[in-house]
Design goal:
Elements (H helix, E strand, L loop, with lengths): L1 H4 L6 H13 L7 H13 L3 H14 L6 H13 L3 H13 L7 H13 L3 H13 L7 H13 L3 H13 L7 H12 L4 H13 L7 H13 L3 H13 L7 H13 L3 H12 L5
């Protein structure tokens, strides 16, 4: 603390840099307590980023984190300074009841403030709140609006969600071609749900030529990211020989991967394969 007191004239940016240096051990001996002191000094100068960092420290890092009450305190300070990421963090804490009583209306309020400043996480969370009707009346049109904004900025989560809304005809005319377009955009960025959905579109031939091999390729990408339904579908395709040579043991491998992620149908399918004599 003495080092902080000896440098009263430093700017908030300088204090944050010193906090980062002590936190990461860059040019000085690593010291979380001194890092916290410097971040707090910056926060006391009215810096929203510093307040956010303090929130993150208490939430995730400082002394193993999970001090949600202190995290919320500093996130709120950041949000009150109109710092978009702080507003998004406050919304998240309200939504999940971390350090504060769970309150979807407050979560919506802070996500909206963050989203209106262009913060991507605030926008996606706001869209989800509209789509699910949490903290606000359910409104697919508003959900679509925010997903579209994110998709146009090349955010994969927005593209995947927009694809889903086109596929299901939520607030727009049902359109598989647009669904495939947006799923592919997100899938090319590695979004597992989009990869699974694109695989499904190829498997079922919706707005694309039915192509089991291409479906398997996309399912495999999603499965390698831990997508249980993609693992299940790979198992089915290996078991039935669609797009790949029939292989019961490879099917069982993918079913077991899905089972490990809690997929009940995959567990049922393995039991049935044993009963049918497909596995030794």
């Amino acid at each position: 603390m003495q080092l902080v007191e000896e440098n009263e004239s430093k700017s908030a940016a300088e204090c944050i840099k010193l906090g980062n240096d002590y936190r990461n051990g860059q040019g000085v001996e690593k010291d979380e307590d001194l890092a916290l002191d410097w971040y707090q000094k910056a926060a006391e100068l009215g810096d929203g980023e510093a307040s956010l960092i303090l929130g993150d420290m208490y939430n995730y890092y400082y002394r193993d984190g999970e001090n949600h009450e202190m995290a919320f305190y500093w996130y709120q300070k950041s949000a009150d300074l109109d710092y978009a990421e702080g507003q998004q963090a406050v919304g998240y804490m309200y939504q999940h009841g971390l350090g504060v009583t769970q309150d979807n209306e407050q979560a919506f309020h802070w996500y909206q403030k963050s989203a209106n400043q262009g913060h991507a996480s605030g926008q996606i969370n706001l869209a989800i709140m509209y789509q699910d009707g949490r903290g606000i009346d359910q409104n697919d049109e508003q959900a679509f609006y925010w997903y579209q904004k994110l998709a146009d900025l090349d955010y994969a989560e927005g593209q995947q969600s927009l694809g889903y809304m086109y596929q299901q005809g939520l607030s727009v005319e049902q359109d598989d071609e647009n669904a495939v377009y947006w799923y592919r955009k997100a899938a090319d960025q590695g979004h597992a749900n989009a990869q699974f959905n694109l695989g499904f579109m190829y498997e079922t031939g919706r707005s694309v030529d039915q192509d089991f091999y291409t479906a398997i390729c996309w399912y495999r990408k999603a499965a390698d990211s831990g997508h249980a339904n993609a693992q299940l579908n790979l198992g089915v395709m290996c078991e039935t020989g669609r797009g790949v040579e029939q292989d019961f043991y490879l099917a069982a491998y993918w079913y077991r991967q899905a089972v490990d992620l809690g997929n009940e149908y995959a567990h049922k399918r393995i039991s049935e394969m044993y009963a049918e004599g497909k596995l030794g």
